[in-house]
Predict the 3D structure of the following.
Amino acid sequence: MRRTLIAILILTHTLLIAQQYNFINYSIEKGLAQSQVEDIIQDNKGYLWIATLGGISRFDGKEFISYSTSDGLLDNQINCITQTKDGNLWIGTLGGMIRYDGRAFYNYPLNKEHLSYNVICITEDKSGNLWLGTDGGGICKFSNSRPVPEESYIEYFNTDDGLKSDKVRALLINQEGDLIAGTRKGLSIFEQGGWHTVELNGIGTPNISDLAWGLSGSLWIGTYGKGIINYRIAQIS
């Protein structure tokens, strides 16, 4: 009995040790631009880029280099980061977006009819166009005008054009090259030159927070208040 008890104690101790995880907290004291993190990506050189509400930080695995308006950023509120096929980083911020080509930052303010755009998400489609989701201004499309987007190349879409809501939280491109937009009032898809609402039967109009593709090709939808929704790609393509 005693040997059995000792064996159980040893096994329990071993399991507890095996379940220990080594977490490291990186904060402002270690060089992070600000403590509220909105987005993280890894670029094609292996660097981590961290979007915060106080600027953007690059992490090489050892130390941070942080950038703010004093380094030329349009605004310190950084909402999202994406890297396009040409290697440029595109950064969504309050009032527009920023491009980083590996050497310098270039600002692209977005203003239409006195509305300043808070860019929440950015994605690139198969043709190289940039799509920007905003918090209240709908969606902007840059028609393959890089590296210098001009106002004449920008298209604006909102609820008047059929978008479900002007508050857009996530953007994805499906296999056919169509744009899927997660909004505060449900899911919209841009196909054949127009916007269409994707009906989520039995769920209503969820307040969408994020979108991601699953390994099986299904769409995972994060929401505020309705948990996670799994949607088959065949239903939206």
Notes: The first helix runs from residue 2 to 18. The helical segments are 2-18. Residues 170 and 182 are 5 Å apart (CA to CA).
